[in-house]
Specification:
By secondary structure, the chain is an alpha+beta fold. It has a single domain, classed as Endonuclease/exonuclease/phosphatase (Deoxyribonuclease I, Chain A), CATH 3.60.10.10. Helix content is 18%, strand content 37%. It has 5 helices and 12 strands.
């Protein structure tokens, strides 16, 4: 069995609960998580400014990881969207638009990462805040260019900020269509947002039956409670060699 660690974390553009934008705090949170594959949401990347302003590059360099960016829109001249960090290289990077007309731009970043002899397909998602919007996005995830893509040969992991306040439409869709494992069943505490006084469960991880869940938990410590309005969800998996 090969063991590896994954995480999902909405970093809120690096802005903490104290109102300060300090991506260095995000780096410290991720260093403590020690995850091999990390899905980040709400990441801002500006070229030609300080190293911290290109958040994906800065965090990847701090961790010694590779990075892939899935742009959903521009932000003050920079690139804004999802970022996946990986201890291993990417064999495929693909951004897929999940935007619903009239709503904020959304997307999922697919990255194919080889873990041992297995090619793992990682879908880093950030879904909308409205129920009808998420219903359409849940159905979109079933399309032939997403979770049913013909070039998917290995196990799939879907993780990110689902904005699903309850055991909602996305969870039901993934469970019914793919029989995905829901990591919530392994959490002692599921509420993670807002970080300092968590009321709802927005951040989720799902995976194929081929992957075994060892443990999962939200990372709660002094830095993570301040660094973003979300907490990182960290999990350990095993896969047959």
């Amino acid at each position: 069995m090969r063991k590896f660690r994954i995480a999902t974390y909405n970093i809120h553009k690096g802005r903490g609960l104290d109102g300060r934008r300090r991506v260095e705090r995000i780096a410290r949170v991720l260093e403590k998580a020690e995850a091999d594959i990390i899905a980040l949401q709400e990441v801002v990347n500006h070229e030609g400014r300080s190293i911290e302003d290109h958040q994906a590059s800065y965090l990847a360099e701090r961790l010694g990881h590779s990075y892939a960016i899935g742009e959903t829109r521009k932000h003050l001249g920079g690139v804004y969207g999802n970022v996946t960090l990986s201890r291993w290289g990417f064999e495929l990077v693909r951004q897929i638009d999940l935007t619903v007309v009239g709503r904020e731009e959304r997307g999922t970043l697919r990255t194919d990462i080889r873990v041992g002899r297995h090619l793992v397909h990682v879908f880093n998602v950030h879904l909308g805040t409205a129920h009808r919007e998420r219903r359409r996005q849940a159905n979109r995830l079933l399309d032939a260019d997403l979770l049913r893509a013909v070039d998917i040969a290995g196990p799939r992991i879907v993780l990110g900020d689902f904005n699903d306040w309850t055991h909602g439409v996305v969870t039901r869709t993934l469970s019914a269509e793919f029989h995905f494992r829901d990591f919530a069943a392994h959490l002692k505490r599921t509420r993670s947002y807002p970080a300092i006084l968590p009321l709802v469960h927005l951040d989720h991880i799902y995976c194929d039956q081929h992957l075994n869940i060892v443990k999962a938990a939200f990372q709660r410590d002094r830095v993570s409670l301040l660094a973003s309005d979300h907490l990182p969800l960290v999990a350990e998996l095993t896969i047959e060699e």
